[in-house]
Write a structure and sequence with these properties.
Layout: H1 2-19, E1 23-32, E2 39-44, E3 49-54, E4 58-62, E5 78-80, E6 87-94, E7 99-105, E8 111-118, E9 122-129, E10 134-141, E11 146-153, E12 162-167, E13 184-188, E14 195-201, E15 204-210, E16 216-222, E17 235-238, E18 241-244, H2 262-268, H3 274-278, E19 299-300, H4 304-313, H5 318-322, E20 325-327, H6 331-335, E21 363-364, E22 368-369, E23 374-382, E24 387-394, E25 400-406, E26 416-417
Parallel strand pairs: 1-16, 4-13, 15-17
Antiparallel strand pairs: 1-4, 2-3, 2-14, 5-6, 6-9, 7-8, 7-10, 9-12, 10-11, 14-15, 17-18, 19-26, 20-25, 21-22, 23-24, 24-25
């Protein structure tokens, strides 16, 4: 009996040690264009799990989530119709009488609307309306549960989004909003897993990756990167370079959406010929290796040499960087968005450990092809009067292709900070 008790005690202590092996708390600050952070999206790149936080929340990385963080099977979040046109209904089960926070984020992780409402216990209904065409994440958080679901809107709405409480079966509750309060939000985490953070402040977005090994405060440096359409692009710093963390989507007369579908532009950015992207002021005194072209002020089209700097920082040898064709080993995987949300069927070697978040926007030559399969990006460097260097990433490999295209092809663009 004594031996059994001892074994049970040792097993219990072992379980406690394992469950507390990862116990890091991460808080957030802002700098640059904003010293405050509105919201944060955290993605575990190994597990492909995502969590949304308020800017003043603390992220608590734990080996085992607290029991209250797990929603019961019968209380899943239901959204119908999905896809929606003008409106949709959200249903979930509320286990207590504490306030419920409802947040809707767009495809890029920007907070579209937030409501905080005191509602009764039981099955609850809300109506969402006014969402523009796009893909959204709906977060519903109670005192002891968190629900997350994707919502697609196909409607051409005003963008004046509303969330209206429909009641719990008897009576109704008036909508009331409240200021968010600082919370400690748990996320399951195993040592050695890379996290990707997106911080949002007004219309600024900063991206970075982190391999947590301790509790710490991390800073989002919000950098100005607006095009003439008023869109401020998300940015990521990799080594000594700061890149756009999304493809350029500046509307020009000769810029194309893949298959002429504006939804593709919203996700993958536009495709441009080389001559179109290079039209603009040559700023050789400020940017020795590139031109501003259609990039925002303070940014420029990266040269072939500047792409090599990125590749070498990620581990490619100088010899491989100078070669043509498929080069390196896993540098392409470090650049590609992980998973198959946008890459079709497979996405070999993708980790996105750089935070570059490369998407397969395809190309247009004689016709459109490779959407979901490959991404292509122009450099500012010509190889002849008719061709220029580009970079290509494929869903079937983790290397990077360096080759040249006809300048008349339509290809994606990432701009680089001066």
């Amino acid at each position: 009996m004594l031996m059994k008790t001892f074994i049970f005690f040792v097993s219990l202590m072992f379980a406690v040690v394992v469950s507390q092996a990862q116990d890091y708390q991460i808080s957030f600050t802002g700098s640059g264009q904003s010293t405050s952070v509105d919201s944060i999206q955290v993605k575990n790149l190994a597990q492909e799990t995502t969590l949304s936080l308020n800017g003043d929340d603390v992220l608590h990385l734990v080996k085992t989530l607290g029991i209250n963080a797990i929603a019961p099977k019968e209380s899943a979040l239901k959204i119908y119709p999905n896809p929606m046109m003008e409106s949709t209904v959200v249903e979930f089960f509320h286990t207590n009488t504490a306030p419920v926070n409802i947040e809707i984020f767009n495809e890029t992780g920007v907070l579209v609307v937030k409501q905080s409402l005191p509602i009764p216990q039981g099955k609850q209904r809300f109506e969402i309306s006014g969402l523009n065409t796009g893909i959204y994440t709906v977060n519903v958080q109670t005192a002891d549960l968190k629900y997350i679901a994707k919502l697609i809107s196909l409607g051409k709405n005003t963008g004046n989004v509303s969330v209206e409480y429909q009641g719990s079966g008897d009576g109704s509750v008036s909508e009331r909003t409240s200021e968010s309060t600082k919370s400690i939000i748990q996320m399951q985490y195993n040592d050695g897993e890379m996290l990707l953070f997106k911080g949002f402040a007004s219309n600024f977005t900063c991206v970075f990756t982190l391999l947590p090994i301790k509790s710490q405060s991390v800073d989002f440096e919000f950098i100005l990167c607006p095009d003439e359409d008023g869109h401020n692009y998300s940015v990521v710093t990799i080594g000594t370079q700061t890149w756009m963390a999304e493809n350029l989507n500046y509307e020009t007369e000769n810029g194309l959406c893949y298959d002429y579908d504006t939804v593709n532009c919203a996700i993958y950015g536009r495709l441009y010929t080389w001559d179109v992207i290079m039209n603009g002021e040559v700023s050789s005194s400020e940017v020795p290796s590139g031109v501003q072209g259609i990039c925002p002020s303070g940014w420029h089209i990266p040269s072939d040499a500047e792409w090599k700097i990125l590749e070498i920082y990620l581990g490619m040898s100088q010899t491989a960087a100078n070669n043509t064709g498929w080069r390196g080993t896993d540098e392409g995987g470090k650049l590609k968005e992980e998973g198959t949300a946008h890459w079709i069927s497979t996405n070999t070697g993708a980790t996105n450990s750089s935070g570059f978040t490369a998407l397969p926007g395809g190309v247009r030559g004689a016709s459109f092809f490779s959407l979901g399969l490959s991404g292509f990006w122009w450099t500012a460097t010509e190889t002849s009067s008719t061709n220029a260097w580009y970079r290509k990433l494929s869903n079937t490999g983790s290397t990077v292709e360096r080759d040249n295209h006809s300048k008349s092809n339509y290809v994606s663009v990432r701009c680089l900070k001066d």
